[in-house]
From TrEMBL:
PANTHER family: SPECKLE-TYPE POZ PROTEIN (PTHR24413). GO terms for biological process: proteasome-mediated ubiquitin-dependent protein catabolic process; regulation of proteolysis. InterPro entries: BTB/POZ_dom, SKP1/BTB/POZ_sf. GO terms for molecular function: ubiquitin protein ligase binding. Pfam families: BTB. It comes from Daphnia pulex. Residues 1-40 form the BTB domain. This is BTB domain-containing protein.
């Protein structure tokens, strides 16, 4: 990018528009120090997505572990989709386990209905766990 006739080479700047500043600062801090940035309140799900996008696997794993500890009825469906889209087996498993244990509360929610429509394979996996097939 900087060795060819790209805009970034001419302007000596790379503009990253799809990640908010706090998340990107946390990502850079982790890359340089190995520590998760804690001075600001950074959304763990956003940091998880950024870590996956920029292939920072150790940060992605730490974020997945953090998210799996923060599972609630309100966010379990979202975290299951995140795990699916960003290939995180641990978060996927923890989310499915949480959903199976809280099926009555989660499966009546609007966000779960969206999953059954947009990601039927995920809802099928959850049903298999709930009824004891997996």
């Amino acid at each position: 990018m900087f060795q060819h006739n790209f805009k970034e080479n001419q302007e000596k700047m790379v503009e990253i528009k799809d990640i908010n500043l706090e998340v990107f600062e946390a990502l850079l801090c982790y890359i340089y120090t190995g520590n998760i940035y804690s001075r600001r309140n950074v959304d763990g799900a956003e940091l998880f997505v950024a870590a996956d996008k920029y292939a920072v696997e150790t940060l992605k794993e730490e974020c997945a572990l953090f998210l799996s500890r923060k599972l609630t009825v309100e966010n379990a469906a979202q975290y299951l989709v995140l795990a699916h889209l960003h290939n995180s087996p641990k978060l996927h498993e923890k989310s499915l386990d949480f959903i199976s244990k809280n099926a009555k509360a989660i499966c009546s929610r609007k966000d779960w209905m969206e999953i059954t429509k947009n990601y039927p394979e995920l809802s099928f996996q959850a049903v298999q766990i709930i009824i004891g097939l997996l």
